[in-house]
Amino acid sequence: MGDSETPTSEPAAKRQKLEDSQPKTPIILEELGDLQLRVGSDHAGHPTIFLVCSKTLARSSPVLKKMLYGGFAESLSAQEKKEDWVVDLPDDEPSSFKLLLHIMHRNFSQVPQEISLESLFQLVVVLDKYDSIALIRPWASSWLRDIKDSTEYPMALHIAWELGLENAFHHFMTVLVQKAFVDEEGELSYYERLLPRWPEDIIKPQKLAHCLDNVGPADLCDTIYELRQRLVSIEFEPYLKLYKSLISEYGQCRYRSKKREHLQKVGVRCDSIALGSMIRECSLVDIDITAKDPVESFHETVPSLGLDLSQLQILAEESYDKLDHSPCRIGLDDYRKKARADIEQKTQEALVLKPQYQARMKAQAMKLGIHNAL
Questions:
Q1: Rounded CA gap, 148 and 160, in Å?
Q2: Is a pLDDT exceeding 80 seen at residue 76?
Q3: Disulfide: which of 30, 122, 224, 307 matches 96 by Cβ 3.0-4.6 Å?
Q4: Sign (positive/negative) of CA torsion 94, 95, 96, 100?
Q5: What is the pLDDT at residue 3?
Q6: What pLDDT, on a 0 to 100 scale, did the predictor assign at position 262?
Q7: DSSP state string for 128-180
C-alpha cells in the first residue's frame, strides 16, 4: 500500500494575499466605541483598524460629523441594518491618523512633546482634510519652535501655510524664489540637499512643480516663477540702463556733451572702454547683456546674478590727451553703489505676500491661537 498523499501548501504569494485580506485586531481608542475605522489601505496591504467613539469624532471635526451623521453612505443611518458600523478611509495615512484620534479622544499621554517635520507634515494634511487644525493648539508652540531652521522647504512651507505661520511661510517662499533656476527643459528647479556632509554635500536638482504639488496655495509655483522673474529684472535694471546709456549718442563720459568734436571723440573712447569691458565681463559669467530680453534669457539663480553683476570690472579711460577721466570712474562707482541699495530696497518691496495669502493665513492662525511670532 502506497504512502498517503500529503496536501501541498498554498503558494506564498497567494497565502500572503489571503493573510492581508483577513481582519486585523483593532487598535482601541475607546473601549466602549461604536465605530470601526479602516484606515490607510492605499498605503499598505491592509488597513489599520481603529475602534473609536463616533460622537467624539463628530464633536472634533465638522467634516467627520457630516460624514457620520449627515446621511452619507458612511453615516449611522445608512449602517443601521448592519451588525457593525464600519467606515473605510483608504487614502489617509495610518500613523498620522492614529495621532489625530489620540488627540480627539484626549489620550494626551500618547501625544509627543516633540515631533519630526515629516510627521508634522503628515498630521497637518489630515488636520486640514478634516478641518481640525485647532485640535493641536496645546502642542503647536513646541512643535513649531524650530521650523524656520528646516531645510525641507516644501514640507515646512506647507505646514506654515496650513497653520497660518505668515512669517515662516514668507521665509520659505523667499528661499525657494532665491534658489529657483530654469533647467535644461525650461522648467523651474532647485537644488535639494540629500545627504548633508562636511565639507561638501551631495545634491541634485528637483523640479519645483513636482515638489510643490499639493503644497500650499494652488498658484504657489506660478507665484514663485513671477517673483523670480521680478527679482531678476530688478538685478538687471541698473546695468541695462547703464548699457543703453553707453551705446546711446549721449553716453556717460562728461566729454560727450562738449561741443568740440575732439572732446566728443575722447568721450566716445571713454564710453567704449566702459562698454567693451562691461560686455566682456558679462560674457565671462554667461550673462548676455546685449540680448533682446536679458531677463528671459537668464536661467541661473537670483543671488548668483546679483553676485556676478556686483563683481563686474567696468573700466573707464585712465587718461587721454591730458584729459582727466577720474570723474568717470568715480561716477561709475557711485552709480553702482546707489544701484545696489536700490536693488535691495526693490527686492524687499517685491517679496511681499499676496493679500489673499495673508488673509487665509490669518484665518488659520486664529484657529490655532498662534500669533505671528513664527
A1: 10
A2: no
A3: 122
A4: positive
A5: 42
A6: 72
A7: HHTT-GGGGHHHHHHHTTTGGG---HHHHHHHHHHHT-HHHHHHHHHHHHHH-
User: What SS3 state is found at 326?
Assistant: helix
Q: Give the Cα separation of 45 and 241 in Å (integer).
A: 63
Surface-to-core class of residue 133, CB atoms within 10 Å of its CB (0-12 exposed, 13-18 middle, 19+ buried): buried
Name, in order, each residue with C-beta under 8 angstroms of 8's C-beta and a sequence gap of 6 or more.
none
Angle, CA 130 vertex, CA 68 and CA 76 arms, to 5°: 5
Q: What is the pLDDT of residues 243-287, one digit of tens each?
A: 999 998 888 887 777 767 777 788 888 889 999 999 999 999 999
CATH superfamily of 24-113: Potassium Channel Kv1.1; Chain A (3.30.710.10)
- The arithmetic mean of pLDDT across residues 78-94, rounded, is 78
List, as one string, the DSSP characters of 80-137.
TTSSS-EEEETTS-HHHHHHHHHHHTT-GGGS-SS--HHHHHHHHHHHHHTT-GGGGH
Output the nine-digit C-alpha cell for 301.
Answer: 539663480
Please give the Cα distance from 281 to 263 (Å, whole number). Answer: 27
Kindly provide the b/e burial profile for residues 330-353, where b requires at least 16 CB atoms within 10 angstroms of the residue's own CB: eebeebbeebeeebeebbeeeeeb
For 201: left if phi > 0, alpha if psi spans -120 to 50, otherwise beta; the answer is beta
In the chain, CATH 3.30.710.10 sits at 24-113
> Which pTM was predicted?
0.82
* pLDDT, mean of residues 183-193: 87
Q: How confident is the model at residue 335 (pLDDT cuts 50, 70, 90)?
A: very high
